UniProtKB/TrEMBL annotation:
The keyword Hydrolase applies. Its EC number is 3.5.4.5. GO terms for molecular function: cytidine deaminase activity; identical protein binding; zinc ion binding. One of its GO terms (cellular component) is cytosol. It comes from Vescimonas fastidiosa. This is Cytidine deaminase. Pfam families: dCMP_cyt_deam_1. Zn(2+) binds at C53, C86, C89. The active site is at E55 (proton donor). It is an enzyme of class 3 (hydrolase).
Length: 129
């Protein structure tokens, strides 16, 4: 999948988001090392704690299908700022893909590329256990 297609896939997921409380939809497209792509959207809950982010939705879908290594993820939002992953999502990405490329988009379609190590420096991983 090309980068443009991955980004378009993440943007399409914005329409699938369930965000009645924050009104902040997020879409994600996660590319595995073998080229398989899993999508995700944020799914909010009235109790807030059970809310799951788009990135973790995509990761859960991929892992539940047997994938454990990921190449890149595109994360789309509709706001003016870049839609960057929250701290929890950064840590979950780190568990499986410490070298993943993270493509963050804003509502205008502008993108910025990060290495996860830029977003989560000095991270804690399985090798510490």
């Amino acid at each position: 999948m090309t980068e443009k297609e991955l980004i378009q896939t993440a943007v399409k997921m914005l329409d699938m988001a369930y965000a009645p409380y924050s009104h902040f939809p997020v879409g994600a497209a996660l590319e595995c090392d073998d080229g398989t792509v899993y999508t995700g959207c944020n799914i909010e809950n009235a109790a807030f704690g059970p809310t799951i982010c788009a990135e973790r939705t995509a990761i859960a879908k991929a892992v539940s299908e047997g994938h454990r290594s990921f190449r890149r993820i595109a994360i789309a939002g509709r706001c003016e700022q870049l839609c960057v992953p929250c701290g929890t999502c950064r840590q979950v990405l780190r568990e499986f893909a410490p070298d993943i490329e993270v493509i963050c988009l804003n509502g205008k379609g502008e993108a910025r590329h990060f290495a996860l190590k830029e977003l989560l420096p000095e991270s804690f991983g399985p090798e510490y256990l």
